[in-house]
Specification:
This protein has 401 residues and is α/β, with parallel strands linked by helices. It folds into 2 domains: 143 residues, Nucleotidyltransferase, domain 5 (2-Layer Sandwich), CATH 3.30.420.40; 188 residues, Nucleotidyltransferase, domain 5, CATH 3.30.420.40. Helix content is 40%, strand content 20%. 45% of the residues are buried. The structure holds adenosine monophosphate. Adenosine monophosphate binds next to helix 11 and helix 13.
């Protein structure tokens, strides 16, 4: 990365079921050139937002499908810039949530790749169909630009068998590919590299526990840049307490609730959409949970305590899995912006030699920073994630290889 490297503009597309988020990034310099979103696709009024050259343009229009959403994105670039023709798109990088056991690296999209992603739909019924639709419409709109699929699961592909194997019947594992896959891979890849740089270590020498705490949340144990274990499993439901997802539960809870008269789909929906912080406190927004704690609301306090305790358990377990821990790293919306939660996690981890610098933890301002004391035997870092840049870099690397 230097000023003389040629620009590598990559359009990063993250297509969800009712939204399409995008960012135009120069993968060579890391500079974002434009970003935006189309929200509420398929509803009567969709909102478009486009930021470029320091200006934000918002609008409302009817956007019935992902195809129309991408047309709206192209129109925003045409009206507000930068022009795709002028920047010369190197690639379109697509976030794909589930790569199953098939994809361990980003790939240029072909018909075979599309068919393989389609086959993986049962593993991620909420995410993969939308991601796939995003790729299809982008291929039509930019037929001359390579489309690259970057998978959330890929970073964890090399986890050891003892981490990814569920103790379930062999037929389930072999016929239905039941195993732990893990998610948030582009975030873990980016954040672990940046954390090693902040520590002044080579990534090959760094043993890290990274806590990606956003609306979805997962922890990863990372040794030498490779995932050793992670808290999400076959689906993004397992592990930590999340905005609306329960994280770990007794699998027996599922059939117990079905025996109370609920359908399997209703139980599944409740565990994914009505549980986690929302189930415990009534809100999935951690800022509101923080406010409830400040006013001594018992439900808010319980949500906070269950979340922090689960995090401490995972950090302890992953420190053991790694054998040696160089740094505990917080990232994503909550990890980067909720000092009270970081304190609750770290104050319970003295047994690992973790000592938080309370002043540094509370200091305002973002950016990469160390928030542990000099005496702490494990560094505690805050490292803002940048999944779009990671997708852009991975897509650029594939097409220029
Ligand atoms: P993400 O999915 O990474 O965008 O993170 C979303 C989560 O971060 C939501 O639960 C937000 O409430 C939380 N969050 C964002 N900003 C703050 C903040 N300043 N304080 C506490 N939580 C925050």
């Amino acid at each position: 990365m230097n000023d003389t490297s040629p620009a590598q503009p990559v359009l990063v597309v993250n297509a969800g079921s009712s939204s399409l988020k995008y960012q135009l990034v120069d993968a060579a310099t890391g500079s974002p050139l434009a970003k935006g979103s189309v929200e509420r696709i398929g509803e009567r009024r969709s909102t478009t937002t486009h930021e470029s050259s320091g200006e934000t343009h918002t609008g409302q229009q009817t956007v019935a499908s992902h195809r129309e959403a991408l047309a709206a994105v192209a129109e925003s670039f045409r009206r507000f810039g930068p022009s795709f023709d002028e920047v010369g798109l190197l690639a379109v990088g697509h976030r794909v949530v589930h790569g199953g056991d098939r994809f361990s690296d980003p790939v240029v999209v072909t018909d075979d790749v599309l068919a393989a992603i389609e086959e993986l739909e049962p593993l991620a019924p909420l995410h993969n169909p939308a991601n796939l639709e995003g790729i299809r419409v982008s291929r039509e709109r930019f037929p001359d630009v390579p489309q690259v699929a970057v998978f959330d699961t890929a970073f964890h592909h090399a986890m050891p068998a003892h981490s990814y194997t569920y103790a379930v019947p062999k037929a389930w594992r072999e016929e239905h590919l039941v195993r732990r896959y893990g998610f948030h891979g582009t975030s873990f890849a980016y954040v672990s590299r940046r954390a090693a740089a902040v520590l002044g270590h080579r990534i090959e020498d760094a043993n890290l526990v990274v806590l990606h705490l956003g609306n979805g949340a997962s922890a990863a144990a990372i040794a030498g840049g490779r995932s050793v274990d992670t808290s999400m499993g076959l689906t993004p439901l397992e592990g930590l307490v999340m905005g609306t997802r329960s994280g770990d539960i007794d699998p027996g809870l599922f059939s117990f609730m079905v025996r109370t008269g609920m359908s399997a789909d209703a139980v599944d929906a409740a565990l994914n959409r009505e549980s986690g912080l929302k189930g415990l406190s009534g809100t999935n927004d951690f800022r509101e949970v923080d406010e409830l704690v400040a006013t001594n609301d018992p439900d808010g306090k319980l949500a906070f305590d269950v979340t922090a305790y689960r995090l401490r358990k995972y950090v302890g377990a992953y420190a053991v899995a790694l054998g040696r821990l160089d740094a505990l790293v917080f990232t994503a919306g909550i990890g980067e912006h909720a000092p009270r939660l970081r304190a609750a996690v770290c104050h319970g981890l003295g047994i690992l030699g973790i000592e938080l610098d309370d002043e540094a933890n509370l200091a305002p301002g973002g950016g990469e920073r160390r928030i542990s004391t000099k005496a702490s035997s494990v560094a505690v870092l805050v490292v803002p994630t940048n999944e779009e840049l990671e997708i852009a870099r991975q897509a650029a690397a594939v097409v220029t290889a």
